[in-house]
Amino acid sequence: MDRTDSEPATSTTGRPVDASVGVEPGRASVERRLYLPPWRVDVTGVPRIVSSAALARVIAAALAAAGAPSPSSIGLILADDAELAELNAIHMGQTGPTDVLSFPLLEPDAYPLHEGSTPPPEAHRSASFRLPPGRRPHLGDIVVSVERAIAQAEAGTGGQTADVRWSPADELRLLVVHGALHVCGWDHADPVEAAAMRSLERDILSPGHRERSG
What number does CATH give the domain 4-12+30-107+136-207? Predict the structure, then answer.
């Protein structure tokens, strides 16, 4: 997944934007809150090719691998091409649907440094804050086009290199993990970071990792 259309969405000031912006109210959806301590994954949309529980497990694995603050929550919105096209235009200034968009709500320095990342200047470090007892921070949201995941998998334009023909379920899991890592401050503009991100995605999605994660 090194396509530029799946970079994290931010405002023109560089601050994270709310993933709920641009999501059509009243659209038929089902929200499930799935607890995989110390994470909570809020899934909106009707699962079609992978269960909500299975998607929540790979998201939790990505959060753990990225060292996300815990306990915390993250949102997953299972959408379609029309919704992603609208969000893509609003937040990225691009025309047409994309496969996944990430909307981080915490600054990158809320997460540990990783290979290829750059420490922010001391003056730009975000101040830590405490939530009221019993409240967990929301890390952000991932919006995925299930329609696009199916199309890419079947057309042979899926996978990390956009030339893989595999199951739509595998493509959707990759997109979800990719989006979760973007929420956690990962990017692929730098070649070193991009290579490290791809390696981490492969590890998270490997059968052995899934077995260790339960």
Answer: 3.40.390.30
- What pTM value is reported for the model? 0.82
Q: Where do the structural domains in the chain lie, given as residue ranges?
A: 4-12+30-107+136-207
Strand order in the sheet with 39-44: 31-36, 39-44, 72-79, 138-145, 100-104
pLDDT tens string for the chain (214 positions)? 434 333 444 322 232 333 333 333 334 466 899 999 999 999 999 878 999 999 999 999 999 999 999 999 999 999 999 999 999 999 999 999 999 999 999 998 899 998 888 776 664 445 554 555 667 899 999 999 999 999 999 999 999 999 999 999 999 999 999 999 999 999 988 899 999 999 999 999 998 765 555 5
